[in-house]
Amino acid sequence: MTGIHGRRGPFTDGDTVQLTDPKGRMHTITLREGGAFHSHKGRIAHDDLIGEPEGSVVHSGTGTAYVALRPLLIDYTLSMKRGATIVYPKDAAQILVEADIHPGARVVEAGAGSGAMSNWLLRAVGEHGMVSSYERRADFAEIARKNVERFHGGPHPAWKLTVGDLGEALDDTDVDRVFLDMLAPWENLDPVARALRPGGLLCCYVATTTQLSRIVEEMREDDRFYEPRSWETMLRTWHVEGLAVRPDHRMIGHTGFLVVARRLADGAQAPDRRRRPAKGAYGKDYEKAKAAERAAEKPAAEPASPEKPAADGPEDGAERA
Fold first, then answer.
1. Cβ(294)–Cβ(286) under 8 Å?
2. For the segment 292-305, what is each residue's pLDDT rounded down to a tens digit?
3. For residue 228, is pLDDT > 50?
4. Fewer C-beta within 10 Å: the chain N or C terminus?
5. All structural domains of the chain
6. What is the pTM of this model?
């Protein structure tokens, strides 16, 4: 199994190790025989860790204690070198679930950024799936490559990294999922639709409300995609210390919006979704067009009968009981 998460047993030369000090600050190092970790708290020899079991406590030259563990992917993601802004773990978790990234899936990712989402996708698809990552900037692609290979201990057998624009370089076909983390994902709906298999899923990650509005409306106009869904996730941690149990003063609020939509079969015509937009949401021209459509769909009223049928009962003027 590839990756730090697949390693077990005592620390060995070349292992990636996370050192956590008493204040919770984490330092990620790669063990090398004869090497050392230096900080303002003193020196820690790598040889003091090699051969020790995971979860050991090691002391620096000044006596500061550090807990040594192999980092979780969430820890590695937050501490690794960055080029572009990463997809934060709270959003990565939503992407894996809502986009249904499963073992063996064929996934296209653009852009690769710093490689954070690439690692999450590779973990989800496994060694028998395939993640094809596209990145326009060569410097970002190099950072992503180093971060992925460092975590997995070398090139991952299920990962392909391409430097280039998605619209020009995309050559994958019959893929299960596409994940877009870019400024204008609506510009790539056509190549994405060609790459996705019928029933496949497109997931977009955007930062602003204007981007959210644009991509949702563009998806609705494209008859190859079924009705998109959009949302955001916020994370609030808690302080638990004796009787002081309360939300933390700081929380991870908005990081990005997620939008997902399914790929329809070629030639399929999805029924119109019955939505009730707020009055004026699409402007006066839209309201007039919809009013005209409703009038055209309304059945014509039946003509009134020329003679009113006589009512049962006594004639007019007769006594009534």
1. no
2. 777 787 766 555 55
3. yes
4. C
5. 4-71 (3.10.330.20), 75-237+249-262 (3.40.50.150)
6. 0.81
